Amino acid sequence: MKKQILSGIQPSGILTLGNYLGALRNWVKIQNDYDCKFFVADLHSITVDQDPEQLRKNIKSVIMQYLACGLDPEKNTIFIQSHVHEHAELGWILNCSTYMGELSRMTQFKDKSKKQENVKVGLFDYPVLMAADILLYDADFVPVGQDQKQHLEIARDIAKRFNSTYKKEIFKLPEGYITENTAKIMSLQEPTKKMSKSDENKEATIFLLDDRATVLKKVKKAVTDSENVIKYSEEKPGIKNLMNIYSAVTDKTYSQIEEEFKGIGYGKFKEDVASAISDILDPIQEKYNQMLLPENDEYIKNICKKGADVAQKIAQEKLKEVYEAVGFVTK
């Protein structure tokens, strides 16, 4: 049997180049080798205020972006998180095996809570729902970046504690799935922080649906330095970020890039980076625009329904085990 992989992305807007190079492209590569479940994490998205109508559009859009990037619904289980209510149910039960101190130490909570005047319980509790997402499906591996490793660790801790409390191996302990050469894409305007689809400065982020003119405009405005030398260095975060992007989309090494642009200024380099980005985005956008046609609405709905049916069947069995272990009375 194939090993299980599970991952999801929040529908907080159009996906970014960072989402693609850091996650989606790798999901496409592994979909033949693993039993993969990829979901739209809409329950997670409401830890901050959302416009309901826009959220509905974003959820559908993320599904279409998954497909446009190459995820095959015949090979993967693709679903919307809120369509499988067992995620929320297990989340509550796992709350009762989680300590306040554990959650208060989470780095993402500390960072995000600083930006909110009234911090919501959902933001504090976010890692427990993430643990439920993972543990429901006996995931062997979870693709994680550096910023999610802490969430995976708390999921493992919760699982261990639950298994120990009820003296039964209910939950499998997941491992992080680290893909070689995974690109970490930073903000074009603040190259020391991660590129984000929720960044208020839209010039900082390249979105999967940005056209060539928009990509060129954003890359040209990208923060660099005054040296005008293409060199991979921690002292040059802006150029390092653009080189990371160029390397990721062309498969060229940093040495090759330095040689290619030796004696050439930032202007030409930025133009070539923008062009290489658009070369990989063009086919994605073509597929996405095809799915926007009204005749494909039913196709998208059927993928979500089929995926939710498959996921829920698995989730129900796991939740039944949990209920029995806890001591709930079955119907």
Can you offer a commentary on this structure?
About 55% of the residues lie in helices and about 5% in strands. It is mainly α. The chain folds into two domains: about 5-175 and about 295-325, Rossmann fold (3-Layer(aba) Sandwich); about 200-290, Tyrosyl-Transfer RNA Synthetase, CATH 1.10.240.10. A three-stranded parallel beta sheet has the order 1-2-3. The chain has a two-stranded parallel ribbon with strand order 4-5. The longest helix is centred in the C-terminal third of the chain and has 30 residues, at about 295-325. The radius of gyration is 21 Å and the shape is globular. The two termini are about 35 Å apart. The mean pLDDT is about 95.
Summarize the structure in short.
The protein has helices at residues 17-30, 42-45, 52-68, 86-95, 100-104, 107-113, 121-135, 149-165, 212-220, 237-250, 254-260, 266-291, 297-326; strands spanning 4-9, 35-40, 77-80, 141-143, 175-177.
Task: Pick out its properties.
Rossmann fold; Tyrosyl-Transfer RNA Synthetase; 5 strands; 53% helix; mainly alpha
How are the SSEs ordered, and which strands pair?
Blueprint: E1 4-9, H1 17-30, E2 35-40, H2 42-45, H3 52-68, E3 77-80, H4 86-95, H5 100-104, H6 107-113, H7 121-135, E4 141-143, H8 149-165, E5 175-177, H9 212-220, H10 237-250, H11 254-260, H12 266-291, H13 297-326
